[in-house]
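Slide 14.
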Amino acid sequence: MDASTVAGSLRPETTRLQTFALFVNFFFPSLALIIVVIRAAGRLATRQFALDDWLVSIAMLMSIAETIISYFCACNRPVASRLLTNNS
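Slide 15: predicted structure.
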């Protein structure tokens, strides 16, 4: 058994629902990020960056973190669990 077979057996198959979830998971936060960046650039250019802009920026950072965590949950990666059961 070569390395490509082992790596292929650890890679989970993605279903259509997981693919759709990944699309939604990345599309809408990306759209929101574009809008927040445009808003922040406009506010900074006019020197009107206020508390609400800081709160929106913090919420965007949290949304990016949530998107990354959701990506790993939606992919349903059983690699760690397989490695743990093989070592036991």
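Speaker note: The first helix runs from residue 3 to 10.
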